[in-house]
Amino acid sequence: MAHYVFDCERMKYPNTGLHTYCLELGKAMLRQLQPTEELTFFANFKNKPDFGPGAKFLEQKSLHKFFMPYRQRYDVWHSAYQTSQFKPGNQKTNRVLTIHDLNFLYEEKTAAKRKKLLKRVQQTVDSSRYIIAISDFVKQDVEKHIDLGNKPLKVIYNGINVAEFPGYDTPGYRPEKPFIFSIGTVLPKKNFHVLPCLLQHNDYDLVIAGTIRESYLEKIMEEAARFGVTHRVKVIGPVKDEDKYWYLKNCAAFAFPSLAEGFGIPPVEAMHFGKPVFLSDKTSLPEIGGTAAYYFRSFEPEAMQKVFAEGMQHYQSAQPQDSIIAHANSFCWKNAAAQYLEVYRTFGQ
User: Fold this and answer.
1) Which of 47, 224, 246, 262 has its CA 20 to 30 A from that of 205?
2) Does 158 have pLDDT greater than 70?
């Protein structure tokens, strides 16, 4: 019997991309296990995730950073985050590591802080035997900044699985006008404050969902006041899946001007509904959006307004919904799970 452990401790933070990644990949791998394989989830029981019936768990606690009580030899211990401090308790266990991004290289951090974070990733890589990147952009970043030794490095794209709720029509906040939608943790690297300028010369509202950092919210609203659109900018906080589904399905457009993404699941979720998607041209987003998205190559208001107006005009005239949906469907958790299990099986008994 081959025994694999999937470290999902980052799922203690709900409403995040890592939570979605662990949940969807975990469920998809469970469905594809062979009779001679067992998958166990290392997870925090205070927010115990639901992977479905029959899922097995090891309880994660903070002190396990210093002493891991699970000492048996597993075939694979899969660390789902590039700076995870939770290592397998048995040195003979093969550690597989997923690197989602080196976003700190692109954020406003001191050189000393970047060096410290890079050292942490290097240490995690040093204790691993197989490295997975979630995009070619991340792979190139890792090859440039991390010493891999002779460890294999493979790209496995994330999938998407948009929970749908047909007939649901009671969102917590219902816009009164056609609206531009965005979602993500409301902090500076997401760059949401550049979006209010898009509301000039039209009658759209802007709805931003996600856990809010209050200091950054102030900057967003300052920009809204600058363009005289304060009453049309709504930052609504975290939303449940039903509401996210409603906003994605009913928005006029989706905008995601993030400065640093290892992959970027929300834009692909919007493409699932055939929506016009407007992205920054930074880090992995051009790779993920491909030719199915429109790109902000400058954050100057006039340049953004031009891209948005021309993109919406193209969308309405060309009607590219089918090709947008097909692009979204190319990112599949079933395929991702099959590729991860293929990696696991290189170490299986």
Assistant:
1) 262
2) yes
